[in-house]
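Re: the 327-residue chain
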Amino acid sequence: MIAALCESFGPPENLVLRNLPDPTPGAGEILVAPSRVALNFFDTLIIADKYQVKPALPFSPGGEFCGRVIALGVGVEGFVVGQRVAGYCSYGAARSRLVVSAADLAPVPDGLSDDQAAGLFITYGTTLYALKQRGALQAGETLAVLGASGGVGLAAVEIGRALGAEVIACASSPDKLAFAREFGAQRGIDYSTEDLKETLKRMTGGRGVDCVYDAIGGEFSEKALRAIAWNGRFLVVGFAAGDIPKIPLNLTLLKGCAIIGVYWGEFVKREPEAHRANMAQLFAWAADKTISAHVHAVLPLERIAEALNLLKERKAQGKIVLAVPQA
C-alpha cells in the first residue's frame, strides 16, 4: 500500500509518500481501501506537534474517509466485503489500506458520493453534536457562526438552518459571506470592516444572539460573547486563528450565559449510541440534500502538502478531500 507519512514534525512539505506492507484486520476490525480521505484544520496542527492528540512517529494524517471493505476481522458482523463505508479514525487515514474498528464505520447510502461521504464525520459530526447536544439549539433561535465559509463553519450554517435557526454568518470578506448565504445563512457580518459586537446586537434588535458557534478563537471570541443574549450559549469548537482567547468570566455572570466546550472525539468514545444516531441523521440529510456536504477541492494523495496548505492558509470554502490511488 501507499501512505502519506509524517516522519518528522513540521509543515506540510515535510510529509513523504512511502510504500508499506498491507495491514491485516484483527478481531472486531475491518480492512478498508479508502478512495477519498477528507482533511481538516487539525491535520495541520497534528503534523506540527501542536495538537492535543500526540501520535508516535511515523504516522499518516487524515481523520475521516470513504472507501470499500477489503477484509473482515474475526467476529465482525453487519458488513460485507465490497461494501461502501465511511468512517472516523482521529488520524492515519491518508493511505490506500486502513484498519479500523467496525464500530467506527457506517454504511454509505446510495446517492451519496464518496467525496461527500468522506467529509461528513468530523466537521458535520462535530457541528451536530455542538448544536444539538451541547448548544440545545431550538427552531426560531438566532445562531452566529464565526468563520462561516470554512469547512466547519459551513457545516454550522447548514445544520443551523436544518434545525430551524436564523443563521448569521460572520466572516472576513464579502465573498466569504456570499458563499455562506448560498448554503443557507440569512444574514452576514464582515468582521474585517464591521464591529462584530455592535452589528450582532443591531441585527437582533438589541437582545443579542442565542447561540455562538466559534471555531476561530482569537480577537473575535470576546466580541461575539459580548453580543450574546440572556441564557445564551457560547460554543467553543476550535482556534483556527491560532490564539486561544482569555475571556473575562464576569461576562458569564452579567449575561447569564454559558461557555460550553465541544470535544467531539471524546463524545464519540463516551456516548457511542448518541454518536451513531447523529451520523445516521447526517447521512440522511446529505442523501436528501438538506445539507450539501460541499467539497471545495479534490486533490490526489501526492498533493497532500498543497491540500493541507489550503486549510492552513484558510483558503478552503468547504471540505478538502484527497483522492487515494486504488490498487
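The longest strand covers residues 29-39.
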